[in-house]
């Protein structure tokens, strides 16, 4: 029964999300919370046997807070936000699973500053995938200035951009055409390139140092989560 319950809960949450999107009175806060719960389910399920320490939970919460602050301090500069770089480094150090959680949480929390809406769940999933992909990629690849910055640019500009721009596509009229969809994605290219470039710059100059800091905390306090994979 315990093995089936998570799948039942996930299926129920997905149905609620779909129902909310199809509803004429869509509650974006509810959708965001449901997406957040769905993102957190694997985290809690995987820790059922691992029994995470308070130090590990504190580290995850601290990195989430840093990601939120890194976005908030650049409030007045569109697309120039280091948040994806923080999430990427979190994925490298803590694994893809925790990277996804930190990415989803950071977008949900920071949007209380930037504004909640249809875009929030898409941003949560997209930023979560940034952390997930970095965790998976750099479990096999050595992290240095070049690999971090190149991966940061491509993952943010392509993966994050495509998913977030989908929220704009869905706000169009019901009669969608290929040309209108392509026009939306084309209009989003400059912003995605700027966000990807910003992420690459921050990872190039600060990525390695940030990774060393987190690894040092892992070693000093015996958290030892850097070896945990998705």
How is this structure best summarized?
With 230 residues, this protein is mainly alpha-helical. Helices cover 78% and strands 0% of the residues.
Question: What does this molecule look like?
Answer:
There is one protein chain. The radius of gyration is 18 Å and the shape is globular. The longest helix has 44 residues, at 178-221. By secondary structure, the protein is mainly alpha-helical. It contains eight helices and no strands. It has helices at residues 5-22, 28-50, 54-72, 83-94, 96-114, 119-137, 145-170, 178-221. The two termini are 24 Å apart. α1 runs antiparallel to α2, α4 crosses α8 (178-221) and α7 (145-170) crosses α8.
- Extract low-pLDDT stretches: 225-230
What is the H/E order? Answer: HHHHHHHH
Beta-strand content: under 5%
| Structure class | mainly alpha
**Rg, Cα atoms, Å:** 18 Å
Could you describe the largest sheet, including whether it forms a barrel? Answer: none
How many β-strands, per DSSP? 0
Principal-axis shape: globular
Count every helix, treating DSSP H or I runs of 4 or more residues as helices: 8
Helical percentage: over 70%
C-alpha end-to-end distance = 24 Å
Overall pLDDT score = 82
